[in-house]
Design a protein that fits this description.
Elements (H helix, E strand, L loop, with lengths): L1 H14 L7 E8 L6 H14 L3 H8 L5 E8 L6 E9 L2 H12 L11 H11 L9 E8 L9 H10 L3 E7 L6 H8 L8 E4 L5 H16 L21
Parallel strand pairs: 1-2, 1-4, 4-5, 5-6
Antiparallel strand pairs: 2-3
Helix pairs in contact: 2-4, 2-8, 3-8, 5-6
């Protein structure tokens, strides 16, 4: 009887749909001409290190179904490539495997700064994930304003209407006003925000802070915080 019940439960579990991930996240990384080989490596390693950080792993563990993440590199509109495809991350082991996959990739291009085109390409990647995913977020990180392709504000307005949130990580090494440009032209959707990295050396810290804030926003509120209208997210510094 026990074996029969166990077999029935296993069969039932196989027939039930898998639990949808709590958030699907595209990390859209600038690899345009202004990003030197050294700066590229700082971004590359910064993403990998973020997924090895206990702070992020703990945040992911609170999200029912985990998170789906894709890494995309962009410069010219015809040089946009997914370097790590959709990966489900639910615990420390899967986060470590994702970090290793990021480190195994190599730079794909070096061109102009087509932010809007990159945003549209990132949105197209969502067509390959389950429709039931609760939150869809595009993270645009870069060190310059758009100089080619679809205007970012046009892409943003289109994507926000589709229920997609766009957040930004502005690296101020080339253009000290870039965070304001991102706020006015790039980010959009519910609770959209910009995180600032003063230079490429501080990219890893900024990436970790941004990811923790995004993942925390996908987690259900704890009983002790239910009903609160707002609070400072995780004690992170202002963005």
């Amino acid at each position: 009887m026990r074996l029969a019940v166990a077999a029935f439960l296993l069969t039932l579990a196989a027939l039930l749909p898998a639990r949808a991930a709590g958030v699907a996240l595209v990390l859209a990384v600038d690899v345009s001409e202004s990003v030197s080989a050294e700066r590229y490596n700082l971004q590359h390693e910064g993403i990998a290190r973020a997924f090895e950080a206990r702070q992020l792993v703990d945040a992911i563990a609170t999200v029912p179904g985990g998170i789906l993440v894709l890494v995309m590199e962009w410069s010219d509109p015809d040089k946009i490539v997914a370097t790590v495809d959709w990966t489900l991350i639910a615990n420390g082991d899967s986060a470590a495997e994702f970090a290793a996959a990021v480190r195994a990739t190599r730079r794909t291009s070096s061109g102009l700064t087509a932010i809007g085109s990159a945003m549209l390409a990132a949105a197209a990647a969502f067509d390959r994930i389950p429709e039931s995913t609760a939150h869809r977020v595009i993270d645009v990180s870069g060190d310059g304003m758009a100089n080619f392709g679809v205007p970012p504000s046009t892409a943003r307005d289109t994507l926000v209407k589709r229920g997609i949130t766009i957040n930004g990580l502005a690296i101020l090494s080339e253009e000290p006003w870039l965070d304001e440009y991102y706020r006015n032209n790039v980010i959009g959707g519910p609770q959209a925000f910009v995180v600032v990295a003063k230079d490429f050396e501080s990219f890893a810290d900024a990436m970790l802070r941004k990811l923790v804030q995004e993942v925390a926003g996908a987690a259900p509120p704890s009983p002790s915080h239910a009903g609160l209208s707002c609070c400072a997210p995780l004690g992170l510094p202002p963005t």
